[in-house]
Amino acid sequence: MAPSEFKPVYHPAGHDHDLRTALQDLRTGRWLSMRDLLESTPDWSAWTRRTQVLAAVAAGSDAVQAWQAEEPRSVAATVMHARVVVERAVRARREKHARAQELWQQAWEGCRAAAHASPADPVPWVCLLALSQLDERQRLEEHRLPPPGPMLFPGPWGLLAEADRRDPFNREAYHRMLQFVYARQTGRNLSEAVDFVQWAASSAPEGSPLHALPLYVRVERYRHEQGNEKALDLHWVTEDGERDARRALHIWFAHTDPATQSLLDLNHLAHALWGSLQFVDAAPVFRALGPYYTSVPWAYRNRHPRDPAGAEDVFLRARSRCLTADVSPGRGPRG
Question: Domain count of the chain?
Protein backbone atom coordinates (compact mmCIF):
# COMPACT_ATOMS: atom_id res chain seq x y z
CA MET A 1 0.00 0.00 0.00
CA ALA A 2 1.39 3.40 -0.96
CA PRO A 3 1.91 5.82 1.97
CA SER A 4 -0.67 8.21 0.47
CA GLU A 5 -3.29 5.41 0.57
CA PHE A 6 -2.66 4.43 4.20
CA LYS A 7 -5.39 5.50 6.61
CA PRO A 8 -4.69 4.82 10.30
CA VAL A 9 -7.52 3.94 12.64
CA TYR A 10 -7.98 4.18 16.38
CA HIS A 11 -9.60 1.29 18.20
CA PRO A 12 -9.14 0.63 21.93
CA ALA A 13 -8.84 -3.12 21.30
CA GLY A 14 -5.95 -2.69 18.86
CA HIS A 15 -4.66 -6.08 17.74
CA ASP A 16 -6.85 -7.95 20.26
CA HIS A 17 -9.63 -9.13 17.95
CA ASP A 18 -11.44 -11.11 20.67
CA LEU A 19 -11.61 -7.94 22.76
CA ARG A 20 -12.96 -6.07 19.74
CA THR A 21 -15.86 -8.55 19.48
CA ALA A 22 -16.64 -8.22 23.19
CA LEU A 23 -16.64 -4.42 22.92
CA GLN A 24 -19.06 -4.53 19.99
CA ASP A 25 -21.50 -6.60 22.02
CA LEU A 26 -20.99 -4.49 25.12
CA ARG A 27 -21.94 -1.33 23.24
CA THR A 28 -25.34 -2.89 22.58
CA GLY A 29 -25.78 -3.84 26.23
CA ARG A 30 -24.84 -7.54 25.85
CA TRP A 31 -22.40 -8.94 28.42
CA LEU A 32 -22.01 -12.62 27.50
CA SER A 33 -19.05 -12.02 25.16
CA MET A 34 -17.34 -10.00 27.90
CA ARG A 35 -17.80 -12.85 30.38
CA ASP A 36 -16.54 -15.46 27.91
CA LEU A 37 -13.54 -13.31 26.96
CA LEU A 38 -12.49 -12.80 30.57
CA GLU A 39 -12.89 -16.49 31.35
CA SER A 40 -10.43 -17.29 28.54
CA THR A 41 -7.92 -14.53 29.34
CA PRO A 42 -4.52 -16.25 29.80
CA ASP A 43 -2.53 -14.03 32.18
CA TRP A 44 -2.68 -11.05 34.52
CA SER A 45 -1.21 -8.68 31.97
CA ALA A 46 -3.96 -9.39 29.43
CA TRP A 47 -6.55 -9.49 32.23
CA THR A 48 -5.55 -6.03 33.42
CA ARG A 49 -5.58 -4.57 29.91
CA ARG A 50 -8.88 -6.15 28.89
CA THR A 51 -10.76 -5.21 32.05
CA GLN A 52 -9.54 -1.62 31.70
CA VAL A 53 -10.70 -1.30 28.08
CA LEU A 54 -14.02 -3.01 28.79
CA ALA A 55 -14.70 -0.76 31.77
CA ALA A 56 -14.27 2.40 29.70
CA VAL A 57 -17.25 1.26 27.60
CA ALA A 58 -19.24 -0.49 30.34
CA ALA A 59 -19.19 2.64 32.53
CA GLY A 60 -21.82 4.15 30.26
CA SER A 61 -24.29 1.29 30.62
CA ASP A 62 -25.78 -1.13 33.14
CA ALA A 63 -24.32 -4.22 31.43
CA VAL A 64 -22.08 -5.19 34.36
CA GLN A 65 -24.95 -4.66 36.79
CA ALA A 66 -27.08 -7.00 34.66
CA TRP A 67 -24.26 -9.55 34.65
CA GLN A 68 -23.99 -9.43 38.44
CA ALA A 69 -27.75 -9.82 38.80
CA GLU A 70 -27.67 -12.90 36.58
CA GLU A 71 -24.49 -14.41 38.07
CA PRO A 72 -24.09 -12.97 41.60
CA ARG A 73 -21.21 -15.33 42.48
CA SER A 74 -19.10 -14.44 39.43
CA VAL A 75 -15.69 -13.23 40.51
CA ALA A 76 -15.06 -11.66 37.10
CA ALA A 77 -18.31 -9.68 37.39
CA THR A 78 -17.25 -8.42 40.82
CA VAL A 79 -13.90 -7.25 39.44
CA MET A 80 -15.60 -5.61 36.47
CA HIS A 81 -17.98 -3.83 38.86
CA ALA A 82 -14.94 -2.36 40.63
CA ARG A 83 -13.51 -1.30 37.28
CA VAL A 84 -16.76 0.41 36.27
CA VAL A 85 -17.37 2.31 39.51
CA VAL A 86 -13.74 3.52 39.55
CA GLU A 87 -14.08 4.72 35.96
CA ARG A 88 -17.24 6.62 36.89
CA ALA A 89 -15.62 8.16 39.96
CA VAL A 90 -12.60 9.38 37.99
CA ARG A 91 -14.84 10.87 35.30
CA ALA A 92 -17.05 12.55 37.93
CA ARG A 93 -14.07 14.23 39.58
CA ARG A 94 -12.71 15.35 36.21
CA GLU A 95 -16.09 16.85 35.31
CA LYS A 96 -16.59 18.31 38.82
CA HIS A 97 -19.85 16.40 39.15
CA ALA A 98 -21.95 17.00 42.27
CA ARG A 99 -21.91 13.28 43.11
CA ALA A 100 -18.13 12.93 42.81
CA GLN A 101 -17.56 12.20 46.51
CA GLU A 102 -20.42 9.70 46.64
CA LEU A 103 -19.09 7.91 43.57
CA TRP A 104 -15.60 7.86 45.09
CA GLN A 105 -16.96 6.08 48.17
CA GLN A 106 -18.82 3.55 46.02
CA ALA A 107 -15.65 2.92 44.03
CA TRP A 108 -13.53 2.42 47.14
CA GLU A 109 -16.04 -0.12 48.49
CA GLY A 110 -16.18 -1.86 45.10
CA CYS A 111 -12.39 -2.21 45.05
CA ARG A 112 -12.31 -3.71 48.53
CA ALA A 113 -15.07 -6.18 47.61
CA ALA A 114 -13.14 -7.21 44.49
CA ALA A 115 -9.91 -7.66 46.46
CA HIS A 116 -11.76 -9.94 48.87
CA ALA A 117 -13.44 -11.92 46.06
CA SER A 118 -10.26 -12.31 43.99
CA PRO A 119 -7.28 -12.22 46.38
CA ALA A 120 -4.65 -13.12 43.73
CA ASP A 121 -5.85 -10.46 41.29
CA PRO A 122 -3.81 -7.25 40.80
CA VAL A 123 -6.74 -5.32 39.29
CA PRO A 124 -8.50 -4.32 42.57
CA TRP A 125 -5.22 -2.78 43.72
CA VAL A 126 -4.69 -1.10 40.36
CA CYS A 127 -8.17 0.35 40.77
CA LEU A 128 -7.31 1.69 44.23
CA LEU A 129 -4.22 3.30 42.69
CA ALA A 130 -6.50 4.92 40.10
CA LEU A 131 -8.60 6.35 42.92
CA SER A 132 -5.52 7.68 44.72
CA GLN A 133 -5.10 10.44 42.13
CA LEU A 134 -8.41 11.93 43.36
CA ASP A 135 -6.83 12.52 46.78
CA GLU A 136 -4.64 15.39 45.59
CA ARG A 137 -3.85 16.56 49.14
CA GLN A 138 -3.09 13.01 50.32
CA ARG A 139 -5.56 13.12 53.18
CA LEU A 140 -5.72 9.33 53.41
CA GLU A 141 -2.84 7.70 55.24
CA GLU A 142 -2.51 4.97 52.59
CA HIS A 143 -1.72 7.72 50.06
CA ARG A 144 1.25 9.15 51.96
CA LEU A 145 3.36 6.20 52.96
CA PRO A 146 7.18 6.57 52.99
CA PRO A 147 8.81 5.80 49.62
CA PRO A 148 10.91 2.69 48.95
CA GLY A 149 13.94 4.63 47.78
CA PRO A 150 15.72 8.01 47.88
CA MET A 151 14.54 10.88 45.65
CA LEU A 152 10.97 9.53 45.74
CA PHE A 153 7.87 11.01 47.38
CA PRO A 154 5.35 9.88 50.03
CA GLY A 155 2.50 8.14 48.24
CA PRO A 156 0.35 5.01 47.83
CA TRP A 157 3.36 2.72 47.85
CA GLY A 158 1.48 0.03 49.74
CA LEU A 159 -1.12 -0.18 46.97
CA LEU A 160 1.61 -0.42 44.35
CA ALA A 161 3.33 -3.13 46.37
CA GLU A 162 0.10 -5.15 46.53
CA ALA A 163 -0.33 -4.94 42.74
CA ASP A 164 3.36 -5.77 42.27
CA ARG A 165 3.08 -8.79 44.53
CA ARG A 166 0.34 -10.23 42.34
CA ASP A 167 1.71 -9.19 38.93
CA PRO A 168 5.27 -7.83 39.10
CA PHE A 169 5.80 -4.67 37.06
CA ASN A 170 2.13 -4.46 36.07
CA ARG A 171 1.99 -1.79 33.39
CA GLU A 172 -1.22 -0.07 34.46
CA ALA A 173 -0.24 -0.03 38.14
CA TYR A 174 2.85 2.06 37.38
CA HIS A 175 0.98 4.34 35.00
CA ARG A 176 -1.63 4.91 37.71
CA MET A 177 1.17 5.77 40.10
CA LEU A 178 2.49 8.26 37.55
CA GLN A 179 -0.98 9.85 37.36
CA PHE A 180 -0.91 10.16 41.14
CA VAL A 181 2.39 12.05 40.88
CA TYR A 182 0.88 14.53 38.43
CA ALA A 183 -2.15 15.06 40.68
CA ARG A 184 -0.11 15.86 43.81
CA GLN A 185 -0.26 19.55 44.73
CA THR A 186 3.42 20.09 45.39
CA GLY A 187 4.71 22.25 42.55
CA ARG A 188 7.41 19.60 41.90
CA ASN A 189 5.29 17.17 39.91
CA LEU A 190 7.47 16.91 36.83
CA SER A 191 10.76 16.45 38.68
CA GLU A 192 9.09 13.85 40.93
CA ALA A 193 7.71 12.12 37.82
CA VAL A 194 11.21 11.94 36.31
CA ASP A 195 12.59 10.40 39.49
CA PHE A 196 9.73 7.90 39.65
CA VAL A 197 9.94 6.63 36.07
CA GLN A 198 13.72 6.32 36.22
CA TRP A 199 13.39 4.34 39.44
CA ALA A 200 10.69 2.09 37.96
CA ALA A 201 12.53 1.46 34.69
CA SER A 202 15.84 0.77 36.46
CA SER A 203 14.45 -2.33 38.17
CA ALA A 204 12.19 -3.61 35.38
CA PRO A 205 13.28 -6.72 33.46
CA GLU A 206 13.85 -6.97 29.72
CA GLY A 207 10.60 -6.91 27.81
CA SER A 208 8.80 -4.84 30.46
CA PRO A 209 6.71 -1.91 29.14
CA LEU A 210 7.95 0.11 32.12
CA HIS A 211 10.99 0.93 29.98
CA ALA A 212 8.65 3.16 27.94
CA LEU A 213 7.60 5.20 31.01
CA PRO A 214 10.31 7.89 30.59
CA LEU A 215 8.91 8.67 27.13
CA TYR A 216 5.59 9.68 28.69
CA VAL A 217 7.21 12.08 31.13
CA ARG A 218 9.20 13.73 28.37
CA VAL A 219 6.00 14.43 26.42
CA GLU A 220 4.22 15.60 29.58
CA ARG A 221 7.04 18.04 30.30
CA TYR A 222 6.56 19.62 26.89
CA ARG A 223 2.79 19.75 27.35
CA HIS A 224 3.14 21.60 30.65
CA GLU A 225 5.53 24.09 29.10
CA GLN A 226 3.00 24.70 26.31
CA GLY A 227 5.80 24.83 23.81
CA ASN A 228 5.56 24.76 20.06
CA GLU A 229 6.65 21.98 17.71
CA LYS A 230 10.22 23.26 17.64
CA ALA A 231 10.36 23.17 21.42
CA LEU A 232 9.17 19.56 21.41
CA ASP A 233 11.94 18.67 18.96
CA LEU A 234 14.46 19.96 21.49
CA HIS A 235 13.10 17.56 24.10
CA TRP A 236 14.22 14.66 21.92
CA VAL A 237 17.33 15.79 20.03
CA THR A 238 19.38 15.62 23.20
CA GLU A 239 21.58 12.92 24.64
CA ASP A 240 18.98 12.07 27.29
CA GLY A 241 16.11 12.02 24.80
CA GLU A 242 17.96 9.75 22.40
CA ARG A 243 18.99 7.47 25.26
CA ASP A 244 15.43 7.10 26.58
CA ALA A 245 14.18 6.20 23.12
CA ARG A 246 16.97 3.68 22.49
CA ARG A 247 16.52 2.00 25.86
CA ALA A 248 12.79 1.54 25.26
CA LEU A 249 13.53 0.13 21.80
CA HIS A 250 16.26 -2.31 22.82
CA ILE A 251 15.17 -3.32 26.31
CA TRP A 252 11.39 -3.39 25.83
CA PHE A 253 10.31 -3.52 22.17
CA ALA A 254 13.03 -5.92 20.98
CA HIS A 255 12.08 -8.47 23.65
CA THR A 256 8.31 -8.57 23.33
CA ASP A 257 5.47 -9.36 20.96
CA PRO A 258 4.13 -5.97 19.83
CA ALA A 259 0.72 -7.51 19.12
CA THR A 260 0.20 -7.94 22.88
CA GLN A 261 1.41 -4.47 23.82
CA SER A 262 -0.31 -1.17 24.51
CA LEU A 263 -0.97 0.96 21.43
CA LEU A 264 -0.09 3.99 23.54
CA ASP A 265 3.33 2.55 24.37
CA LEU A 266 4.03 1.75 20.73
CA ASN A 267 2.95 5.22 19.63
CA HIS A 268 5.11 6.88 22.28
CA LEU A 269 8.10 4.81 21.18
CA ALA A 270 7.55 5.54 17.47
CA HIS A 271 7.16 9.22 18.32
CA ALA A 272 10.31 9.26 20.45
CA LEU A 273 12.48 7.59 17.82
CA TRP A 274 11.15 9.85 15.09
CA GLY A 275 11.59 12.94 17.27
CA SER A 276 15.20 11.99 18.03
CA LEU A 277 15.86 11.47 14.30
CA GLN A 278 16.33 7.70 14.64
CA PHE A 279 14.16 7.08 11.59
CA VAL A 280 15.38 3.60 10.62
CA ASP A 281 14.95 2.34 14.19
CA ALA A 282 11.42 3.77 14.26
CA ALA A 283 10.33 1.89 11.12
CA PRO A 284 9.75 -1.53 12.76
CA VAL A 285 7.70 0.15 15.49
CA PHE A 286 5.45 1.76 12.88
CA ARG A 287 5.13 -1.60 11.14
CA ALA A 288 4.24 -3.27 14.45
CA LEU A 289 1.38 -0.81 14.86
CA GLY A 290 -0.15 -2.09 11.64
CA PRO A 291 -3.29 -0.07 10.84
CA TYR A 292 -3.62 1.38 14.35
CA TYR A 293 -2.55 4.60 16.01
CA THR A 294 -3.45 6.81 18.98
CA SER A 295 -3.83 10.59 18.80
CA VAL A 296 -1.51 11.06 21.80
CA PRO A 297 1.35 11.98 21.66
CA TRP A 298 1.04 13.12 18.03
CA ALA A 299 -1.64 15.67 18.94
CA TYR A 300 0.89 17.70 20.91
CA ARG A 301 2.81 18.30 17.68
CA ASN A 302 -0.21 20.07 16.27
CA ARG A 303 -1.12 23.68 16.90
CA HIS A 304 -4.59 22.52 17.88
CA PRO A 305 -4.08 19.44 20.12
CA ARG A 306 -7.81 18.69 20.25
CA ASP A 307 -8.01 18.33 16.47
CA PRO A 308 -7.88 14.58 15.67
CA ALA A 309 -7.23 15.25 11.98
CA GLY A 310 -4.12 17.25 12.90
CA ALA A 311 -2.77 14.43 15.08
CA GLU A 312 -3.38 11.94 12.30
CA ASP A 313 -1.54 14.14 9.81
CA VAL A 314 1.53 14.35 12.07
CA PHE A 315 1.47 10.57 12.55
CA LEU A 316 1.27 9.98 8.80
CA ARG A 317 4.17 12.32 8.08
CA ALA A 318 6.31 10.65 10.74
CA ARG A 319 5.41 7.16 9.54
CA SER A 320 6.17 8.01 5.92
CA ARG A 321 9.51 9.58 6.87
CA CYS A 322 10.62 6.55 8.88
CA LEU A 323 9.44 3.86 6.47
CA THR A 324 11.09 5.70 3.60
CA ALA A 325 14.36 5.81 5.54
CA ASP A 326 14.22 2.05 6.11
CA VAL A 327 14.97 1.05 2.52
CA SER A 328 17.37 -1.75 1.68
CA PRO A 329 19.41 -1.49 -1.57
CA GLY A 330 17.27 -2.54 -4.50
CA ARG A 331 14.09 -2.82 -2.35
CA GLY A 332 11.29 -0.52 -1.48
CA PRO A 333 9.93 0.33 1.97
CA ARG A 334 8.70 -2.73 3.88
CA GLY A 335 5.51 -1.18 5.19
Answer: 1
